[in-house]
Design brief:
single chain, about 400 residues, alpha/beta, Rossmann fold, 2 domains, seven-stranded parallel sheet, six-stranded parallel sheet, 13 helices, 13 strands, about 45% helix
């Protein structure tokens, strides 16, 4: 039995994007185990929260704890496992979200190293690191990792620029493999346009003062998008699709409340349900004819289910991921004007069949790149299983 701990894989978080990473990673591990005849048990180390866990089964447990408050308990748990996978919440292995989040992530990584357990950096965004001290600390943990996997070319370059000489697997986002229920046959009707509205950007970020340096009034941009689609000759049916859904309404993060508030301004707009799981959200998004959004994993859900999508970036992770796959339809809210973004969105809408074809090719490329990570992880797990068998035989 190989015991695997998953850190920075969140199972009870309000952000369905990080939940999508966890569901997909667990699926990858189960597939590797089945294909290689391995017995595994997984422990997701997550903080407490009111949301039910998005993963379950006899081979997995979700353990609630706060490593910052209980570092020795975290250390003992890690010591009891054979392997640790760290996906960094997707994009948190950087210092763009502030010192507290960075410190928490580094504490967990260094405790894994101290415990002498192999650390796998699962596909994620790495960088940017503006602080020289944080850059140095990040560099050390990368150097000591058993597998280094990025999910885009920008992260690979950022890692190399830090002086990392070890092999780097440039994979893609594991959520490309998130399961979903494909939509049934469509009856004739209006074009379904899905818009993911970020409650975080609506609020101005965690600091509430344009934390991400957007070049426009994000709320006004979204209002203009809705107005233009409502007036479109195609008679579009607009769906506001939340991807961060908090149990406590009014949170700075809550896409659902932001969508409900917007719908009050625009009669006829449909607000999607408060999804309980990432696959539920992806299954809904798969029923759209065109999609755009500022939550990257909402866009990945569209992209990987065949829906033409325009990602609306607030950080380099968007262009890094989609650009690395050859899908170049991301707009950048930190550099582009509102007029430029509107022009690109509606040009993409008119050419959505072309976008769908491009996404199909790009998705195949992404799955192929992701296969490199899966192969490396399978090889490591097989070696660990052989090592445990050798110890038993020697005994």
């Amino acid at each position: 039995m190989i015991k695997i701990a998953l850190i920075s894989h969140l199972a009870k978080n309000d952000n369905l994007g990080v939940g999508a990473l966890t569901v997909s990673e667990v699926g990858i591990l189960r597939s590797i185990a089945e294909q290689n005849g391995l017995a595994i048990h997984m422990t997701v180390i997550d903080g407490p929260g009111p949301r039910p866990a998005c993963v379950s089964g006899d081979d997995i447990q979700v353990l609630e704890m706060r490593p910052i408050r209980n570092p020795m308990s975290f250390f003992r748990i890690v010591r009891a496992h054979d392997l640790v996978l760290d996906i960094g919440g997707g994009d948190s292995f950087a210092d763009i979200y502030g010192g507290a989040r960075f410190a928490k992530m580094m504490l967990m990584k260094y405790l894994v190293h101290l415990a002498g357990k192999p650390l796998v950096l699962a596909p994620q965004t790495i960088g940017p690191f503006k602080s020289r001290i944080r850059r140095f600390v990040a560099k050390q943990t990368i150097r000591w990792s058993a597998i280094i996997a990025t999910r885009d070319a920008m992260s690979t370059k950022a890692t190399r620029d830090m002086g990392i000489a070890q092999p780097i697997i440039e994979a893609s986002d594991v959520a490309l493999k998130l399961p979903f229920d494909p939509p049934g046959a469509r009856k004739p009707g209006p074009v379904r346009v899905g818009i993911n509205v970020s409650g975080l950007l609506m609020s101005g970020g965690y600091t509430r003062n344009n934390m991400f340096g957007l070049q426009m009034d994000y709320r006004k941009l979204v209002q203009d998008i809705i107005t233009r689609f409502q007036g479109h000759p195609d008679g579009c049916e607009i769906h506001l699709v939340p991807h961060v859904i908090t149990f406590e309404r009014g949170s700075v993060e809550d896409d659902y409340q932001a969508s409900v508030d917007l719908a009050k301004e625009f009669p006829g707009v449909i607000v999607a349900p408060a999804f309980a799981t990432p696959p539920e959200a992806k299954s809904y998004i798969a029923g759209m004819d065109f999609f755009m959004g500022a939550r990257m994993h909402a866009c990945i859900a569209a992209f990987s289910s065949g829906v033409p999508v325009v990602p609306m970036a607030y950080s380099r992770k968007f262009a890094g991921l989609f650009g690395s796959l050859g899908y170049d339809h991301t707009v950048d809210c930190t550099t582009d004007s509102s007029d430029a973004i509107l022009q690109r969105i509606f040009a993409a809408y008119e050419n959505r069949s072309i976008l769908a074809d491009e996404a199909k090719v790009a998705l195949a490329r992404g799955r192929e790149k992701l296969g490199l990570y899966e192969a490396a992880l399978a090889a490591l797990m097989t070696r660990l299983a052989a090592g445990r068998a050798g110890i038993r035989d020697a005994g």
